[in-house]
Task: structure prediction
Amino acid sequence: MDAIFLATFWRFLRVGYGVRLSATATREGFRLKGESDLGTLAGGIYTYEGEVNLTDFNCSYRCKYDHGVFRMKRLD
Result:
């Protein structure tokens, strides 16, 4: 599975990048895992772990200098 993330660094530098996420089926949906090297200026290697189902996408990210969570919820 490929994902595209849009990010803002230092409040003014906006970038978009692709990440290949492996998906493992679970009872509720899929477990996601992957990594991407964004280069030294952007923090180096980012790792991603998360879950996706019919209503939610939650994915944490971590690198040497940063970490956080992407969260999306389906609106009906």
Observations:
- The chain has a mean pLDDT of 90.
- The first strand starts at residue 2 and ends at 9.
- Strands lie at 2-9, 13-25, 30-37, 45-52, 56-62, 67-73.
- Residues 6 and 13 are 11 Å apart (CA to CA).
